[in-house]
Amino acid sequence: MPRWLIAIGRLENLLISVFALALVVLAGLQIVLRLAENGLVWLDPVLRVLVLWVALLGALAAARHDKHISLDVLGRLLTGRLRRYARFVSLGFAAVIAALLCHASLGLIAVDRESGTLLAGAVPGWWAELILPVVFGLLTLRFLLRALIDLPPPTVPGAPP
Asked: What's the distance, Cα to Cα, between the start and end of the chain in Å?
């Protein structure tokens, strides 16, 4: 595996760990503060954003390890070359969907940027959405690479299948 993919995977793991830890600590802090009737108003939107970021980074990590959600009915019925072709089509379809979601998320960010919605205090809401095109772009790359790596070698004319 190329070094840059390994580096991206390590960065993903680090971000998941940091954001999940922040989520637990901040949620616990909010609970304690609410019991004392002093909850922080800005913390709930931040916690929602952290949940989104951890979930999307978790999906990216699952795809890295080929543990993403998939329907593999054909994969269980087919064998050999047909199974690899079915996997290629499936991963190619997932890459197309991820690319479409990356494009759509860029549109969402543009709309939210124009609206001027604030997340917490003076933080623009679209900043929280920046994770969307990044993750969907990386998912596209990951699905494409996996589809191409798993593609069976081309057949040689006259060679047995």
From this structure: 28
Strands 118-120 and 123-124: antiparallel
Q: For position 104, what pLDDT does the model report? A: 97
What token pair was written down for 38?
């002093």
Which residue from 61, 33, 25, 76 is spatially nearest to 138, judged by alpha carbons?
61
Question: Is 8 exposed, middle or buried, given 0-12, 13-18 or 19+ CB atoms closer than 10 A?
Answer: middle
Average pLDDT per block of 10 residues along the chain, 161 residues long: 79 93 94 88 89 93 81 72 83 94 96 87 88 95 86 54 54
The answer to the question of residue 96 being in a domain is: yes
- Total domains present in the chain: 1
> Domain of 133?
3-149
Position 157 in a domain: no
